[in-house]
Every structure is written in structure tokens, then in C-alpha cells.
Design brief:
Largest sheet: none
Order of helices and strands: HHHHHHH
Helix content: over 70%
Shape: globular
Oligomer: single chain
Distance between the termini: 33 Å
Strand content: under 5%
Number of helices: 7
């Protein structure tokens, strides 16, 4: 479990490669293809944040929370894994599998991607006084076009009822706030054993 806690993002890179191969072989189309690509974009986004260049944890702890313990507080290796794997992977996979029956879930996950775009483009750069932070490139390469194509497809093909929009938007806001931001706060522990190695803290000198 400890290996997974510090290497889930490396597994995400392998999963992204497997996903590309699977999509090439199965050749889904339309919304199904788009939502599987959305999952792939999440994998690559996490790789940029946590592996290359990978100093997202230290950056977010220092810039967002003014932490004096950026290697463990408030975000730590355990809470980072749970938020990204359980909520991230789980939510995006379910959205791709169930969108025909629950388009509201797809709307919610796309709003998580939208939240990432806003956070990496505006909030993190303002807070950290930077022009780049880990995750920004994949936001604009992948999240932005996928978000645009998703809403264009949903609206043009009338795939969502008013209730789907209501539930999806409400759940998307809840996932961004409670599933990401508040989860970090709730699981914060200055005495946590799940400390980030130094390579996760590169870039602190920028703040």
C-alpha cells in the first residue's frame, strides 16, 4: 500500500498508455470516446502534477495554505492518493461507463476538469506569484478542448434534461469543494507519517 501511495501517478501513466491502446482497438465514438479521453487526460494531468515536474504537493501547500510544513501539511501523500485515485479515477471511470444512464455524473466530472483549469490557470499562479505550476500545461492541452467538446455535444444533441443539469452542476461544485479542497483540510495532520520526499517540493523557492 505504501508503494502505491507514492507511485499511483506512475501507474496512471501506464494506465494512460493502456487506455490509448484500448481505444485504438475498440474505436468508440461520440460521447463514449470523449469521456474515456477525459479519463486519459486526468491521468496525464496527474503525471504532470506529481511526477514531471511533480512539485505540485509542495507548491499547493506553500502557495495555497502558507504552510510551514509543505512536505506534509495540509496535503500529505495519503490524502493526495485518496483524492486523486478514489474520487478522480473512480468518478471519471464511472462517468465513462454510465453516461447514457447518468449524464449528470459526466457533467460533474467535467466540472472537476473545469475546476482544475481555473485553479491552475488563475488561483495557483496568483497565490504563488508564478506563470507556471505543475498541471497547467495538461489543463490547456487536454482539459480545455475536452470541456468545450463535452458541452457542445451535450447541448447540440440534447443529451441532458434540466434535472441532469441541476444534479450534475450541484455534484460538480460539491466534488470541487468537498471532494478536493475540504478533503485536504479534513485529512490534514502535522504528525502524519505520509510525508512527501524532497522531489515533491521543488519549486518552493519561487514563492
Amino acid at each position: 500500500m505504501n508503494f502505491f501511495r507514492y507511485h499511483w501517478f506512475d501507474i496512471a501513466l501506464m494506465l494512460a498508455a493502456i487506455l490509448v491502446l484500448a481505444l485504438f482497438l475498440i474505436q468508440p465514438t461520440g460521447m463514449t470516446l470523449l469521456l474515456w479521453l477525459s479519463l486519459g487526460s486526468l491521468f496525464l494531468h496527474q503525471v504532470e502534477e506529481w511526477r514531471y515536474p511533480g512539485y505540485f504537493p509542495g507548491m499547493v501547500n506553500k502557495a495555497m495554505f502558507n504552510s510551514d510544513l509543505p512536505d506534509r501539511y495540509p496535503l500529505n501523500a495519503n490524502s493526495g492518493m485518496l483524492v486523486n485515485v478514489v474520487l478522480g479515477w473512480g468518478g471519471y471511470v464511472l462517468a465513462a461507463l454510465l453516461w447514457q444512464h447518468a449524464i449528470w455524473l459526466a457533467i460533474a466530472t467535467i466540472l472537476v476538469s473545469t475546476g482544475n483549469i481555473l485553479a491552475h490557470t488563475i488561483i495557483f499562479n496568483i497565490k504563488g506569484k508564478t506563470f507556471y505550476n505543475p498541471g497547467l500545461i495538461t489543463c490547456w492541452l487536454f482539459f480545455v478542448p475536452i470541456v468545450y467538446l463535452f458541452f457542445d455535444l451535450v447541448i447540440s444533441q440534447n443529451l441532458a434534461r434540466p434535472s441532469d443539469w441541476f444534479i450534475g452542476i450541484a455534484l460538480g461544485i460539491a466534488l470541487n469543494y468537498f471532494g478536493v479542497y475540504k478533503m485536504i483540510i479534513w485529512m490534514a495532520d502535522k504528525n502524519t507519517p505520509y510525508i512527501f520526499p524532497k522531489r515533491f517540493l521543488l519549486g518552493q523557492s519561487q514563492h
